[in-house]
Design goal:
CATH architecture of the largest domain: Orthogonal Bundle
Number of helices: 14
CATH superfamily of the largest domain: MetI-like
CATH topology of the largest domain: MetI-like fold
Helix content: over 70%
Number of strands: 0
Number of domains: 2
Largest sheet: none
Radius of gyration: 24 Å
Shape: globular
């Protein structure tokens, strides 16, 4: 196990370097010159030269890349080009609302999806199974933007059950007042595809030989489902869950934008609009690191769920 972890950590180094190189090349070739955006209407050559010097854009590309690598190694990405605030402080102020929103959505959505998927798999072929599958298929065909706009209009504006938008500095107020509607909409958007996927995993496991053997031994269907099928079907569930975890840092862009939640998703949208490279590269690097770490964690969890899994 330890040798596997060391080997995987060593493999992260060239992967991270590739991410840094790709991000640097894309921004410098496609992102344009942010000095024109920051200069505004004052487009005199002296003003542009001064801004480029302050941003370090007057250096050669290799020098800029070396500075970028040093920033990644120290996790200090300097100051925002548009707000002149330290990037670290900006991200620290944004990560809390995003984790509160997306973490709640992921936790509640996963629990509901696993429970409903296990139930319809247990009742496979029944009217309940077909009805849930039909509803899930229809729900997947509707854009998440439609759910957000409809929920905000009917539940908040018309019915007055929730605030239309807003966020406060108090966690209790956010949990009880501002979070419920975006949480509800976020769970609804992700529930249908998760139910379809998890149901397929459960049904596939229930068709294996060990399930028939358990039935031949006289075990009841609930015992088979809870003790055998659920555990073996958790590997694809863990895979889906671990792939979602890195994006908790990214936040829910649409939800945060529509509900004025000061999270990472909204910050990403504003950073892209302002060509704020330090913020963009910091978030991208953090997500890349989180993705690699959670992939490693997923492999370890596989081994804990099923001891037959060989880590190589």
């Amino acid at each position: 196990m330890l040798a596997f972890i060391i080997r995987r950590v060593a493999q992260m180094v060239p992967t991270l370097f590739g991410v840094m190189l790709l991000l640097f090349v894309l921004f410098n070739w496609v992102g344009g010159d942010p000095s024109y955006i920051l200069a505004g209407k004052n487009l005199s050559p002296e003003a542009l030269a001064n801004i480029r010097h302050q941003l370090g854009l007057d250096l050669s590309l290799p020098q800029q890349f070396v500075i970028f690598v040093k920033q990644v190694l120290t996790l200090d990405f300097g100051t925002s080009w548009s707000t002149q605030q330290p990037v670290t402080s900006i991200l620290h102020s944004r990560i809390g609302p995003s984790l509160l929103l997306t973490g709640s959505i992921l936790l509640l959505g996963t629990v509901l999806a696993v429970v409903i998927a296990a139930l319809v798999a247990y009742l496979r072929g029944s009217l309940t199974d077909r009805l849930v599958t039909l509803i899930s298929t229809c729900a997947m065909s509707v854009s998440g933007l439609v759910y957000i706009i409809a929920g905000q209009y009917w539940l908040a504006h018309k019915a007055g059950l929730f605030p239309i938008m807003g966020w406060s500095d108090r966690i209790a107020e956010n949990l009880l007042y501002y979070l419920p509607l975006p949480l509800l909409l976020g769970v609804v958007v992700g529930l249908a595809p998760d139910i379809r996927f998890y149901r397929s995993c459960f049904v596939e496991e229930m068709n294996h030989d060990y399930v028939r053997t358990a039935r031949a031994k006289g075990l009841s269907e609930p015992v088979i489902m809870l003790k055998h099928v659920l555990r073996n079907a958790m590997i694809p569930v863990v895979t889906s869950l671990m792939m979602s975890l890195p994006y908790l840092m990214m936040g829910a862009m649409l939800l945060e934008t529509f509900f004025s939640i000061p999270g990472m998703g909204k910050e990403v949208v504003m950073a892209v609009d302002r060509s704020d490279f330090p913020v963009i590269k910091a978030i991208t690097i953090y997500i890349a690191l989180a993705t690699m770490l959670f992939n490693l964690l997923a492999d370890i969890v596989y081994k804990l769920i099923d001891p037959r899994v060989e880590l190589s």
